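2024-03-11 09:14:02 DEBUG pipeline.ingest accepted 1 chain
2024-03-11 09:14:02 DEBUG pipeline.ingest length=448
2024-03-11 09:14:03 DEBUG pipeline.predict start
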Amino acid sequence: MFLTSASAASYRRILGANERVQVGFIGCGVVARRHLQDFKNQKDVQLAAMCDVYRPRFEQAIADFEPGAKGCQDFRRVLESKDIQAVVVSTPDHWHALISIMACAAGKDVYVEKPMTVFVKEGRWMIEAARRYQRVVQVGTQQRSGPHYRKAAQEILPGGYIGKILSVRVAGFRNVMPGFGNPPDSAPPPDMDYDLWLGPAPQRPYNPNRSLYHFRWFWDYSGGQMTNLGVHEMDIVLWALKAKGPTAVSSSGGRFGCEDNGEVPDTQDALLEFPHCNVLFSYREASTGHNGGTGLEFLGTKGSMKISRSGYQVLPDMKMPPGGAVPVYVGQPAIPRNGPQHLFERPKPEPWIEPLEASGSELEQFSLHARNFIDCVKSRQRPNADVEFGHQATAACHLANISLRTGRKLRWDPEKEEILGDREASACLVRPYRKPWDRELRSLGFGG
């Protein structure tokens, strides 16, 4: 619990345990449609408002999900509504933090998609806003609500079932060659408020690749696949290792294959060190090769665990025979080691542990995550993917990108949230907001 009992009781008088929670949706794009369906399936939720800077999106969302909902282009109209208790933020990444902070200040609970920030300091501001205004903030790392993930990260892995974990690895591949083209700058669509779409990001001419889905290939709005998909894997690693973050990060890569105007890497390797438990985590992201990848795998001294949204599988390792891998003589009487080879055989290997397996469902995880958020809106408890966890996972991914862009290995203090001994890299932990959004942030007491 993070409210006093009196505060929680007061909130319940406003919103009864059986009343429908009025939810506004800010951003009605690809992932938002998944959230719209999941929240619509909750019997105690009303889809009260839908907002998107691109008018056709919110109009289509209203038509498909809630014909009676209100629609608008400016998210501030949603935050001003006294009838709305919570918002789901599914905008481009560069808007996640500021809208969430403003929503907390407006008295709204927040479900915000990952990555929750575009630079590290934003995450700390979001945590401070959630605590100051006593808001529930759930981050869209849906695995936190998956039963098999919870079993693995809270019991099997930290409990030592696969032995001492020494390394973790994951690789993701999706072939997007030859890239997304290089369209010229142009006027934005007539039904799009492009200035509001930019928001706190730098002023740039409109370009089709800088808008809607393709925004994530540009540093102004995102951190590429490292923060888009990497946050999911990073979150599970931190959860299982009970770590707030790595202490050293190195990364390299570049935009090697895509023939377009994108900026972020299409190929990237990152190595993160967790010396408190002697674990190395290697992450590879590539926009070439077969779709899929090797998935997240924890490697221990007794076996390994592969885990994904579809389930986990624990594979045992075999015990080494006495004396290591040297064959053991069996037979009477004793024969010298240089005797006939047919008199030697290896003992039957024995597994350290028994194999384990569990299945999971991606759609179930999304639905359970929405359910957990609504339950916490009512109970005032911390949600499964609390803003603090989302910040730690996202910050680790940002560090990998900072290492790549500076060309150096970084030393990180996860307690103080500081890069050690590198002023240039430290400067990358924060970015200025564009006017007037910088003043909006300062008016709420953030941003310095």
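2024-03-11 09:14:41 DEBUG pipeline.report Residues 1-14, 327-332 have pLDDT under 50 and may be disordered.
2024-03-11 09:14:41 DEBUG pipeline.predict end
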